[in-house]
Every structure is written in C-alpha cells, then in structure tokens.
Specification:
CATH class: Alpha Beta
Oligomer: single chain
CATH architecture: 2-Layer Sandwich
Helix content: 25-40%
Number of domains: 1
Number of strands: 4
Number of helices: 3
Shape: globular
Radius of gyration: 13 Å
C-alpha cells in the first residue's frame, strides 16, 4: 500500500508555518487539518546530515512502514503531516520509532477531533 505524500515544497512550507509542532527524540513533527482532503497526506524529510543516500532511503522506508503498521492511522483523517527526521533515528530500534510515530499521530488526532 502506497502512502499519499506531499510533493511540492510549498505544501511542506504551509504545514510547517501554519500547522502545530510536535517535538520528539527521533523527529520533529508538524500537522495541519485540511477539510478538503479525505485521507492523511504525509511528508517525510531526511536531510543529508542523517547520512548518505542509502541511509536516508533506509530511514524513509522504516518511517513509512511504521506509519503503515500504526493502528492510530485508521482513526486519523484529513491531516497533512510532515516528519523531519533527526540523525539519531538511525540508532533507534524500529519498535521505538513506531511508538514515537504513534504518539505523534495520537496527539494530532486529539487536537483535531
């Protein structure tokens, strides 16, 4: 299953500027409610500080899989979410990454219920 993603830089900037901020030990998250969309749209950012292309792609795959496996995703709707990954995400176990993402999605769901 492919996740719907933010594609344009302007979409990322809009979520970052007008959305709510959520700090975590492995990423900085931003979320914004948008009544025009029917499902969540995700933007995953992994900068060159994290590592070379192989490490960045591996990180994005892990994050996408953690989102897919999250049970909270099914209850959240109409959100644009941006996750900006930190360097220590490479050292984090998948279970810890998944729990951080679950907390982020739960917080976004609580605010926009």
């Amino acid at each position: 299953m492919r996740l719907p993603t933010l594609n344009k830089s302007s979409e990322f900037q809009k979520v970052k500027k007008t959305g709510k901020f959520y700090p975590s030990k492995s990423f900085n998250g931003y979320f914004l409610h948008d009544s025009e969309i029917s499902e969540n749209i995700y933007g995953i950012v992994v900068s060159k500080r994290v590592g070379n292309a192989v490490k960045r792609n591996h990180t994005k795959r892990r994050v996408r899989e953690a989102i897919r496996n999250s049970l909270v995703v099914k209850s959240t709707k109409k959100l644009k979410l941006v996750l900006i990954m930190k360097k220590n995400v490479l050292d984090l176990a998948f279970i810890d990454l998944k729990s951080d993402i679950d907390k982020f999605l739960t917080k976004a769901n609580e605010i926009y219920k």
